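--- STAGE predict ---
source: upstream dedup step, 1 unique chain passed
mode: sequence only
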Amino acid sequence: MSSPFWGPILSWLAARYIRLVWLTGRWRVENEEIARNLVEKRTPFIACFWHGRMLMIPNAWSYAPRMQILISQHRDGAFISRALGYLGIGTIAGSTTRGGTVALRGIIRALKSGEYVGITPDGPRGPREKVSSGTIAAARLSGAVLLPVTYGAKRRKVLDSWDRFVIPFPFTRGIIEVGQPLPVLDSSDESLIEAARKELEDALVAITTSVDRKLGASETDAG
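--- STAGE serialize ---
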Protein backbone atom coordinates (compact mmCIF):
# COMPACT_ATOMS: atom_id res chain seq x y z
CA MET A 1 0.00 0.00 0.00
CA SER A 2 3.03 2.28 0.32
CA SER A 3 3.68 2.25 -3.45
CA PRO A 4 3.05 5.71 -4.95
CA PHE A 5 1.47 3.98 -7.96
CA TRP A 6 -0.65 1.24 -6.42
CA GLY A 7 -1.69 3.07 -3.26
CA PRO A 8 -4.19 5.46 -4.89
CA ILE A 9 -5.53 2.68 -7.13
CA LEU A 10 -6.15 0.34 -4.20
CA SER A 11 -7.82 3.18 -2.27
CA TRP A 12 -10.11 3.87 -5.23
CA LEU A 13 -10.99 0.17 -5.52
CA ALA A 14 -11.76 -0.01 -1.80
CA ALA A 15 -14.11 2.98 -2.09
CA ARG A 16 -15.84 1.45 -5.11
CA TYR A 17 -16.28 -1.84 -3.24
CA ILE A 18 -17.93 -0.04 -0.32
CA ARG A 19 -20.35 1.64 -2.74
CA LEU A 20 -21.01 -1.68 -4.51
CA VAL A 21 -21.91 -3.39 -1.25
CA TRP A 22 -24.20 -0.50 -0.29
CA LEU A 23 -25.97 -0.25 -3.66
CA THR A 24 -26.46 -3.98 -4.22
CA GLY A 25 -27.44 -4.86 -0.67
CA ARG A 26 -30.56 -4.32 1.40
CA TRP A 27 -29.34 -1.82 3.94
CA ARG A 28 -31.26 0.25 6.44
CA VAL A 29 -30.24 2.84 9.02
CA GLU A 30 -31.98 2.39 12.35
CA ASN A 31 -32.55 5.41 14.61
CA GLU A 32 -31.29 7.72 11.85
CA GLU A 33 -33.53 10.44 13.26
CA ILE A 34 -31.22 10.73 16.27
CA ALA A 35 -28.33 11.94 14.12
CA ARG A 36 -30.64 14.04 11.95
CA ASN A 37 -32.07 15.86 14.99
CA LEU A 38 -28.58 16.64 16.26
CA VAL A 39 -27.59 18.03 12.87
CA GLU A 40 -30.78 20.10 12.60
CA LYS A 41 -30.16 21.56 16.07
CA ARG A 42 -26.49 22.11 15.20
CA THR A 43 -25.44 20.08 18.21
CA PRO A 44 -21.77 19.08 17.81
CA PHE A 45 -21.16 15.35 18.13
CA ILE A 46 -18.42 12.80 17.73
CA ALA A 47 -19.63 9.60 16.06
CA CYS A 48 -17.95 6.59 17.71
CA PHE A 49 -17.68 3.17 16.06
CA TRP A 50 -15.45 0.17 16.64
CA HIS A 51 -12.38 -0.12 14.40
CA GLY A 52 -13.64 -3.44 13.09
CA ARG A 53 -17.00 -1.90 12.17
CA MET A 54 -15.91 1.22 10.30
CA LEU A 55 -16.13 0.04 6.66
CA MET A 56 -19.79 0.86 5.97
CA ILE A 57 -20.19 3.83 8.33
CA PRO A 58 -19.56 6.49 5.61
CA ASN A 59 -22.75 5.34 3.89
CA ALA A 60 -24.82 6.51 6.86
CA TRP A 61 -23.72 10.12 6.38
CA SER A 62 -26.12 11.99 4.08
CA TYR A 63 -26.09 15.47 5.61
CA ALA A 64 -24.78 18.77 4.24
CA PRO A 65 -22.14 19.38 6.94
CA ARG A 66 -19.01 17.40 6.21
CA MET A 67 -17.92 14.42 8.29
CA GLN A 68 -14.24 14.21 9.27
CA ILE A 69 -12.93 10.87 10.51
CA LEU A 70 -9.87 10.65 12.75
CA ILE A 71 -7.26 8.50 11.01
CA SER A 72 -4.06 7.36 12.69
CA GLN A 73 -0.68 8.25 11.22
CA HIS A 74 0.32 4.58 10.98
CA ARG A 75 1.40 3.18 7.60
CA ASP A 76 -2.12 2.34 6.40
CA GLY A 77 -3.45 5.78 7.29
CA ALA A 78 -2.82 7.28 3.85
CA PHE A 79 -4.63 4.36 2.18
CA ILE A 80 -7.69 4.77 4.42
CA SER A 81 -7.65 8.55 4.07
CA ARG A 82 -7.67 8.38 0.27
CA ALA A 83 -10.47 5.81 0.24
CA LEU A 84 -12.60 8.00 2.51
CA GLY A 85 -11.87 10.98 0.28
CA TYR A 86 -13.33 9.12 -2.69
CA LEU A 87 -16.48 8.67 -0.58
CA GLY A 88 -16.71 12.38 0.24
CA ILE A 89 -15.47 11.98 3.82
CA GLY A 90 -12.66 14.14 5.18
CA THR A 91 -9.96 12.99 7.58
CA ILE A 92 -8.08 14.35 10.58
CA ALA A 93 -4.52 13.06 11.07
CA GLY A 94 -3.68 11.54 14.43
CA SER A 95 -5.35 9.37 17.04
CA THR A 96 -6.62 9.61 20.58
CA THR A 97 -3.55 7.67 21.72
CA ARG A 98 -0.77 8.73 19.33
CA GLY A 99 -0.49 12.29 18.04
CA GLY A 100 -3.20 13.14 20.55
CA THR A 101 -2.56 16.87 20.79
CA VAL A 102 -2.56 17.34 17.02
CA ALA A 103 -5.68 15.18 16.72
CA LEU A 104 -7.50 17.13 19.41
CA ARG A 105 -6.78 20.42 17.66
CA GLY A 106 -8.16 18.99 14.43
CA ILE A 107 -11.29 17.70 16.17
CA ILE A 108 -12.03 21.05 17.83
CA ARG A 109 -11.35 22.93 14.58
CA ALA A 110 -13.75 20.69 12.63
CA LEU A 111 -16.51 20.93 15.23
CA LYS A 112 -16.20 24.72 15.52
CA SER A 113 -16.50 25.05 11.74
CA GLY A 114 -19.83 23.20 11.83
CA GLU A 115 -18.51 19.84 10.67
CA TYR A 116 -18.85 16.53 12.51
CA VAL A 117 -16.22 14.05 13.61
CA GLY A 118 -15.93 10.26 13.59
CA ILE A 119 -13.61 8.27 15.88
CA THR A 120 -12.74 4.60 16.37
CA PRO A 121 -12.38 4.62 20.18
CA ASP A 122 -10.52 1.29 20.21
CA GLY A 123 -8.15 2.27 17.39
CA PRO A 124 -5.66 2.33 15.95
CA ARG A 125 -4.26 -0.82 17.60
CA GLY A 126 -6.65 -1.88 20.34
CA PRO A 127 -7.39 -3.44 22.70
CA ARG A 128 -10.38 -4.50 20.66
CA GLU A 129 -13.73 -3.02 21.68
CA LYS A 130 -12.20 -1.14 24.61
CA VAL A 131 -12.82 2.61 24.62
CA SER A 132 -9.70 4.71 25.15
CA SER A 133 -9.75 7.55 27.65
CA GLY A 134 -8.56 9.83 24.84
CA THR A 135 -12.00 9.59 23.26
CA ILE A 136 -13.58 10.95 26.44
CA ALA A 137 -10.99 13.74 26.57
CA ALA A 138 -11.87 14.75 23.01
CA ALA A 139 -15.55 15.08 23.92
CA ARG A 140 -14.86 16.79 27.24
CA LEU A 141 -12.56 19.43 25.77
CA SER A 142 -14.58 20.04 22.59
CA GLY A 143 -18.00 20.15 24.25
CA ALA A 144 -19.39 17.57 21.81
CA VAL A 145 -21.68 14.68 22.72
CA LEU A 146 -20.65 11.12 21.85
CA LEU A 147 -22.84 9.26 19.36
CA PRO A 148 -22.46 5.46 19.26
CA VAL A 149 -22.79 3.97 15.75
CA THR A 150 -22.26 0.46 14.42
CA TYR A 151 -23.22 -1.85 11.58
CA GLY A 152 -23.77 -5.51 10.89
CA ALA A 153 -24.19 -7.66 7.78
CA LYS A 154 -25.85 -11.01 7.20
CA ARG A 155 -23.23 -12.25 4.72
CA ARG A 156 -19.74 -11.14 5.57
CA LYS A 157 -16.10 -12.02 6.07
CA VAL A 158 -14.62 -11.53 9.53
CA LEU A 159 -10.86 -11.07 9.22
CA ASP A 160 -8.44 -12.74 11.61
CA SER A 161 -7.07 -9.36 12.67
CA TRP A 162 -6.80 -7.71 16.09
CA ASP A 163 -10.06 -5.82 15.48
CA ARG A 164 -11.96 -8.72 13.83
CA PHE A 165 -12.58 -6.42 10.85
CA VAL A 166 -15.95 -7.06 9.20
CA ILE A 167 -16.21 -6.99 5.39
CA PRO A 168 -19.78 -7.38 4.08
CA PHE A 169 -20.40 -9.13 0.78
CA PRO A 170 -22.40 -7.59 -2.09
CA PHE A 171 -26.14 -8.32 -2.16
CA THR A 172 -26.24 -8.88 1.58
CA ARG A 173 -28.72 -7.57 4.12
CA GLY A 174 -27.24 -5.04 6.51
CA ILE A 175 -28.10 -2.64 9.32
CA ILE A 176 -26.40 0.55 10.44
CA GLU A 177 -27.61 1.46 13.91
CA VAL A 178 -27.32 4.79 15.72
CA GLY A 179 -27.38 4.81 19.51
CA GLN A 180 -28.44 7.48 21.97
CA PRO A 181 -26.15 10.53 22.32
CA LEU A 182 -24.01 10.55 25.45
CA PRO A 183 -23.02 13.89 27.00
CA VAL A 184 -19.65 14.11 28.74
CA LEU A 185 -19.13 16.46 31.68
CA ASP A 186 -16.25 18.93 31.42
CA SER A 187 -14.52 17.55 34.47
CA SER A 188 -11.07 16.19 35.21
CA ASP A 189 -12.47 13.91 37.93
CA GLU A 190 -11.07 10.47 37.11
CA SER A 191 -14.16 8.64 38.37
CA LEU A 192 -16.40 10.68 36.04
CA ILE A 193 -14.07 10.13 33.10
CA GLU A 194 -14.06 6.38 33.75
CA ALA A 195 -17.86 6.36 34.07
CA ALA A 196 -18.19 8.12 30.70
CA ARG A 197 -15.68 5.73 29.11
CA LYS A 198 -17.57 2.70 30.40
CA GLU A 199 -20.93 4.15 29.33
CA LEU A 200 -19.74 4.57 25.73
CA GLU A 201 -18.13 1.13 25.72
CA ASP A 202 -21.30 -0.53 27.01
CA ALA A 203 -23.44 1.37 24.48
CA LEU A 204 -21.27 0.26 21.55
CA VAL A 205 -21.23 -3.35 22.72
CA ALA A 206 -25.02 -3.28 23.12
CA ILE A 207 -25.87 -1.89 19.67
CA THR A 208 -23.29 -4.11 17.94
CA THR A 209 -24.71 -7.20 19.64
CA SER A 210 -28.19 -5.97 18.70
CA VAL A 211 -27.53 -5.65 14.95
CA ASP A 212 -25.74 -9.00 14.79
CA ARG A 213 -28.63 -10.68 16.58
CA LYS A 214 -31.19 -9.11 14.23
CA LEU A 215 -29.25 -10.36 11.21
CA GLY A 216 -28.47 -13.80 12.63
CA ALA A 217 -24.74 -13.12 12.34
CA SER A 218 -22.20 -14.51 14.79
CA GLU A 219 -18.72 -13.43 15.86
CA THR A 220 -17.01 -16.00 13.65
CA ASP A 221 -19.22 -15.76 10.56
CA ALA A 222 -17.22 -15.98 7.35
CA GLY A 223 -20.13 -15.42 5.02
